Amino acid sequence: MKHDLIALRHALHRQPELSGAEAGTAALITDALRGTAPDRLVTGLGGHGVAAVYDSGQPGPTVMFRAELDALPIPDASGVAHASQRPGLGHLCGHDGHMAILMGLAGTRPARGRMVLLFQPAEETGAGARAVLADPAFGVLRPDYAFALHNMPGLPLGAVAVAAGPASCASVGWRIALTGREAHAAFPETGQSPAPMLARLVRHLASLPANSATLCHMNMGAPAFGIAPGRAVAHVTLRSVTDDGLARLEADLAAWCAENAGGLALDISRHDHFNATLNDPEAAAHVDAARNTLGIPQAEFAFPMRPSEDFGAFSAQAKCALFFLGAGTDHPALHDPAYDFPDALIAPGQAMFRQVLAQITG
């Protein structure tokens, strides 16, 4: 089985698909799940999501384990034999490995209650978890507990980090569009340039608390020397430990932009919104107990993870815990073109989920 899971991961790695376009990945997962005789198989969940239910037939809790289907618009430069065959796309966050870990649980029925394996779409954009929750088909799957893991380069290989409370940050992308009026470069005073507003915006973002705002992109005017600009766009990522903190950050920045637009037309749109992930104390305790039972080392980790993870959306429906599985202290970082999920993590990841299931339903 271990060899089959590695082969599955390599097959997934060769054919990455972007958020919202995971039809081929979902089909491969669905075909594999059918061979494990699930009691219910749900497809097209929140887009291309797939869920398999294994029912003990005895009253008890529903425990959900979740993996992600999507890849990234980054070229794969890992150099491995199973490298991406799709130019410009790569499984450079390890979702292929997360899927292989979950598939290792397929066919397992708990002593009581149900196990749900969820293969979720569109994690990288923050839209997938909320789309799954909004899908009427999720009603029959609704869990009492939900667990997910994320591999973490920089932590010792196979070590586990978990804690109650904030596990990953809330974030949102803002597209700030400014519209004034172009003018001849010799007479800029006859137009209305967004340049002063952009300069103020850059200074203001730098004055905010550390790591709460990242200026990701700016574009202004035409690539010419005879035209004073009349239009500009800035992309900014905002980040906070909590959803409430992110809401306050957004409200404050919206007020600042309105006050400093200086007569420019201002249009702000929101993108890639991620909820914060807050680990439930009981769920986190189950993860730590599983780690201890299995003799897996505990990794030191500065919670919360600054990158965002849309698994937090499930916390409104279940007792959730997201934990981190070390990918090696010298392993390439997540989203690095050279990244490749370590196959050695499939076995401990699967063992952690199995032990958590046994503790809750045994």
Overview of this protein structure:
Keywords: Carboxypeptidase, Hydrolase, Manganese, Metal-binding, Protease. It comes from Roseibaca calidilacus. This protein is an alpha+beta fold. The chain contains eight helices and 15 strands. The protein has helices at 2-14, 23-34, 95-103, 128-134, 195-207, 243-260, 281-294, 346-361; strands at 40-45, 49-55, 62-68, 114-120, 145-152, 160-161, 165-168, 170-179, 183-184, 213-220, 227-228, 231-240, 265-274, 277-279, 319-326. The chain has a seven-stranded mixed sheet, sandwiched between helices. A four-stranded antiparallel sheet has the order 10-12-8-13, with helices on one face. A two-stranded antiparallel sheet has the order 7-14. The two termini are 24 Å apart. The mean pLDDT is 97.
What's the topology here?
Blueprint lengths: L1 H13 L8 H12 L5 E6 L3 E7 L6 E7 L26 H9 L10 E7 L7 H7 L10 E8 L7 E2 L3 E4 L1 E10 L3 E2 L10 H13 L5 E8 L6 E2 L2 E10 L2 H18 L4 E10 L2 E3 L1 H14 L24 E8 L19 H16 L1
Parallel strand pairs: 3-4, 3-5, 5-15
Antiparallel strand pairs: 1-2, 2-4, 6-15, 7-14, 8-12, 8-13, 9-11, 10-12
Helix pairs in contact: 1-3, 3-8, 7-8
Report the major sheet: 7 strands, mixed
Count the domains.
2
What average pLDDT do the residues reach?
Answer: 97
The H-level CATH homologous superfamily of the largest domain, spelled out, is: Zn peptidases
Low-confidence stretches: none
Short description:
By secondary structure, the chain is α+β, with helices and mostly antiparallel strands. It is built from 8 helices and 15 strands.
What descriptors fit this protein?
362 residues, alpha+beta, Aminopeptidase, Alpha-Beta Plaits, 2 domains, seven-stranded mixed β-sheet, 15 strands, elongated, Amidohydrolase, hydrolase
